[in-house]
Amino acid sequence: MSEEQKIRIGITQGDINGIGYEVILKTFAEPEILELCTPIIYGSPKLAAYHRKALELPTQYNAIENADDAENEKLNIINCNDDEVHIDLGHATKEGGKAAYEALEKAISDYKEGKIDVIVTAPINKNNIQGEGFNFPGHTEYLQERMGGEERSLMILCSGDLRFALATSHIPLRDVAAAITPELLEEKLTLFNKSLKEDFNIDAPKIAVLALNPHAGDNGIIGTEEQEIIKPTIEKMSKEGILCYGPFPADGFMGSANYTRFDGILAMYHDQGLAPLKALGMEDGVNFTAGLSVVRTSPAHGVAYDIAGKGCADENSFRQAIYAAIDIYRNRKNNEYAHRNPLRKLYFEKRDDSNRLNLQQPDNE
Prior knowledge:
By secondary structure, the chain is an alpha/beta fold. The chain has helices at 20-27, 45-55, 94-112, 139-146, 176-179, 182-198, 225-239, 250-255, 270-281, 316-340; strands spanning 7-12, 37-43, 62-64, 76-79, 118-121, 154-159, 162-166, 206-210, 243-248, 264-267, 286-290, 295-299, 348-351, 357-360.
């Protein structure tokens, strides 16, 4: 890949008192990753220097004033915060929340101006980031609003070939049943099917839909949502061409390894999807916000105040978030090209063992 083709990845610093800078700096301590992209941290050179020194990390970075000045083969960083921001490792502070918000706002602004291609977010504290500009339960809802409010989003958690999408995300458990409506499930299944095709390059994705209640409601004894809402919606969407099946009782579905037969799984609520994914692939887990024009990924973990500053944070989830952002961005571009190119049927995409994208001519055409 030439320097001109490198994907510009905007990386938000997240909560400055958590492990965000640690996983970022550890990820880019390996120079090979700079061959794949041009990373731009939205944060503070001063804060980065503090973390690098405290953790004794060798990672070098290049301080710039504008994303247009980002250099290839280097980890670039833009100052988004006041130089007097105070770090209090392992603790939630209003300063930390404000610094996280300022970095996020700047990254979104630069994306809208075409200065970066994708966004990878380090973890935030959903409590201390709340303020005049951020009144959302998480990144997903904030991004949906900032991208215009008309785009609909879908939270997908990935680890290898395991992909969980959430029908409901950051809402209290007591509100989940009322939120599960035919309209919601139709929207989420449509978004999920589209994302599996265009973002993950799966031609005819098979989607498993989990039940809301234990034992899938036991024919109405434990709950009626399966009979009245979930199953009829699955049947309707199947008739419209989406390969969706269920509803499956979540415990048996995961315990029997039935999940290996599907390209994606739609969970009814947050922990129903995240608990098994983190049990099976926490180290490789990636959070992806599907449905939006911007490609946004993040590691599948939080700020981890309990280990902040100790140097023991595992950066692999963040590294996988970088790789996922690159892959999804490329898949979207290739799909856009295929739709525009009348000769697209002459080629198909195939990934080899090194995960590099190759274009090969079909044998029978």
